[in-house]
Design a protein that fits this description.
three-stranded antiparallel beta sheet, FAD/NAD(P)-binding domain, two-stranded parallel ribbon, extended, alpha+beta
Length: 162
């Protein structure tokens, strides 16, 4: 999934190159357009985190979906994650949630590194520059991120058979 910042940057690059943008790619008009790339293989419908991950397990008794909040940092004890500090987007109030077994950090390509760094795990120079106490100097956290935009080209041509 492409976040809005990277999508906007991609569209800005197309503008810079004077590439025409069209609203609907199925109309046969030349130009750039956005198409969904995640398809449910069984239903042949657009897939998302909701349909692919949440819906199949939504009735589990040990699943609690908390919307309108975000994880600010891990709660660490001797480099072991015991829980997370959570912030409410509506009023910036915070609370801690603790795990009984394990903490699995799965916040995507961008936000996993962000949460680790806000927790003090990452390149010490970057953490110190941001005023974050260094828990573990781990230079690879947040490094070598690569986005993978795809640009397909399609055009009509007249073939001459020899």
């Amino acid at each position: 999934m492409v976040d809005s910042y990277h999508l906007a940057t991609f569209w800005d690059a197309l503008d810079e190159l004077n590439v025409t943008k069209v609203e609907e790619g199925a109309l046969g008009k030349p130009g750039a357009f956005w198409i969904p790339a995640s398809i449910d293989p069984v239903l042949q419908t657009r897939s998302s985190a909701l349909t692919a991950y949440y819906n199949p397990i939504q009735n589990r008794s040990n699943l609690h979906l908390l919307t309108g909040h975000y994880v600010q940092k891990l709660i660490l004890s001797n480099l072991l994650a015991e829980g997370v500090k959570i912030v409410c987007r509506a009023d910036n109030s915070t609370f801690n949630a603790f795990a009984t077994k394990e903490v699995i950090l799965a916040a995507g390509a961008v936000h996993t590194a962000q949460v680790l760094q806000l927790s003090g795990v990452g390149p010490s120079s970057a953490l110190k520059a941001a005023g974050i106490d260094v828990v573990l100097d781990l230079p690879g956290v947040g490094a070598n991120f690569q986005d993978h935009p795809v640009a397909f080209m399609s055009f009509n041509s007249k073939l001459t058979m020899l």
